[in-house]
Write a structure and sequence with these properties.
six-stranded mixed sheet, about 50% strand, mainly beta, five-stranded antiparallel sheet
């Protein structure tokens, strides 16, 4: 995985699981970014990304823990172009201060991730 930091956000590019023959994004790049990339417990984190299956339900995990979306009534579905909808947000978990991986997965099993530094 390659990680790239972009002014005030964290971004990571990952490939989808190539063992999934029916995966829409197999062989494509998934891109995901967080804004901000650092914050305290309860901070609102906006997630942006592309390369997911079109019109697919998206789930999110913060540090490996299932995390509800705080936007769009608690659910998010990728756009017809396979992007995470603009304004998609979660709340930073109540875990100890550390760097955590935030992972978004679509219904086809494609996932992208980026890191978030949780402060005290």
């Amino acid at each position: 995985m390659t990680t790239m930091l972009i002014a005030g956000s964290a971004a990571a590019w990952v490939t989808s699981d190539s063992s999934r023959a029916n995966s829409w994004a197999t062989g494509h790049w998934l891109q995901m970014a967080l804004g901000p990339a650092t914050g305290k417990k309860g901070s609102i984190i906006e997630i942006a990304g592309s390369g997911f299956a079109p019109d697919a339900v998206l789930t999110v995990r913060f540090g490996g823990h299932p995390t509800p979306w705080t936007s769009n009534g608690g659910t998010e579905t990728s756009t017809t172009g396979g992007a995470i909808p603009a304004g998609a947000t979660i709340k930073a978990g109540g875990l100890p201060a550390a760097v955590y991986v935030v992972t978004v997965t679509d219904a086809a099993g494609n996932s992208g991730s980026a890191t978030f530094k949780l402060l005290n």
